[in-house]
Amino acid sequence: MDPILHIQELETRFELDDRVIHAVNGLSLTVNPQEFLAIVGESGSGKSVSFLSVMRLIQSPPGRILNGSILFDGVDILKMKANDFRRIRGNDIAMIFQDPMTSLNPVMRVGDQIDEVIRLHLKLSRQASRARSIELLKLVGIPDVEHCINNYPHQFSGGMRQRIMIAIALACDPKLLIADEPTTSLDVTIQAQIANLVKKLQKELGMSIVWITHDLGVVASLADRVAVMYAGTVVEEGLVDDIFQRPRHPYTIGLLRSLPRLDLDVQEILPEIPGSPPNCESFPNQCPFAPRCDWQRDRCLESRPLLDATDIPTTHSACFFWQECIDSTL
Amino acid sequence: MALKNTLDQSSEYLLEASQVKKHFPILKGFMQKEVGAVRAVDGVNLQVKRGETLGLVGESGCGKSTLGRTIVGLYEPTDGQIVFNGVNISGLKGLQRKQVQRQMQMIFQDPFASMNPRVRIKKIVGEPLTVHEKLRGSQLTDTVACILEQVGIDAECMNRFPHEFSGGQRQRIAIARSIALNPELIVCDEPVSSLDVSIRSQILNLLKQIQDQFQLTYLFISHDLAVIRHISDHVAVMYLGCIMENADRESLYANPLHPYTQGLLSAIPVPNPKLERERKRIELRGEIPSPSNPPTGCRFNTRCPKCMPGVCGHTVPELIETQPGHWVACHLFS
Question: Do B46 and B179 share a structural domain?
Fold first, then answer.
């Protein structure tokens, strides 16, 4: 099956007056049809910027996509004219953002905000689009839709606003839904509601989902496949069970070990990853994780490891010494 | 009430709060007439043992931060008393207040907002020392250097400004500031929530390490049940201004009694895909009601999967001890 999204060697930078921010450094990634892919990374790892690049929402200047290609359904969207891409954005590819309060228009009724998308992309009449809006809001579990469709965003709670965002994103039956930390600003009980809703909708509508998050628990409960990002690139990717059971990159190993977990006994001291994550630098000739890595060798500082197959074909790791990593975690 | 009995053995507890309330008035109109109140904390009983950590957990808006701030004296309680080291501190003023104040410190959630961006680290950490200990000059510099080393910050950095440090380092500086006066109690208000996953474990380890080193008592506020479990000896679960369940760590996590605690625990995804697929979830419907107009009876009755009609909506359940040390406020147990 051909992938729905195929990113190759993507490089996005922000060129400021006094310095250059290397947000994405050679990212390669595929998303398959009907797949739930989770992107895991800490702040500054480039996970949001990568997918803003996919949506072509990087403001230029200062942002610039230097290299790479993004194939959506086999067509390179970076080479498309802005007007042609506008037909795809919000239609075939939709996105949900972290904070539903800032991504909804505060002075526009929510019903009109959904109608706008439907009428623009599907060219439906006023009545038909309103009917579709009501149907969508019911689908995402807004109670008493007929009453509150004319309310403004501030009249809804955070969880309800995020449901409205999801309704807008789903308005045109997208093939790919990108969710950028959609549950981070919500409480755990609401987070569980939203996560279950998205999982259910994916089964019903059969779209691909890219779920960007830093919460490994959410990943384990939702994803089919995981890509771990560090310093603007993917350091490990694989099926969710393999990544959590036997990670093959020192960063993933460190992350999983350093979590306080409800499913294991309490440890007196948590294993730490020393140092702090890099601040948007580029590492052309070394492994970006080497300064914080327990397995660091000379080779790690001399050349940069690329994402390569490991002993299981579905898992790729950007570490020269993944074999040793596995041995030491046995 | 049964809790009163335990209140008398005071020496074991460093901090005891009984029936603490904090209401914020809602004012309206030209005359600023009081039309209602946000009942952020509404009758909380808590005890913190000396040298232990009490974890206070709840969703946003449940009043956990307000309670923490009321305890350290940033807010004056509307009602109830807070006994610290055997002294009732609510209502203390002047010098007495100042003396109690230095025994309790606070660490805030956002290390970017909790420090004055135009003040150097030396002054940030040294200010409590100048105010309370009257330290000046080289004596102050030496003490600050010593404190910074203890939290893993290079003492040579003390002339830098907060923006020159990363989030994790700033949280270390905030910890340095809180231990400067060698306090007895530190209220940690979500100290790791804004930090990256890989930094979180560093700060949690540091907090544990300085707790052992200085025999500190923590009131640790968080919404993250996994973090709370890692750091606490006792855990109190809060909902809409009230304590719903209070128990030692093992019995709370192994045997949660209150339907709210059960719902919270089941809502948290664990980083284990196999376990996640097999887990049965109790999904809590709806959202946390407004604290300005809390539901009558049990606060949780509007979302409770085990709500009993005719009971839960009418009477407020009292916190009762079901097993030794395990307190729960639910009609299922009364």
Answer: yes
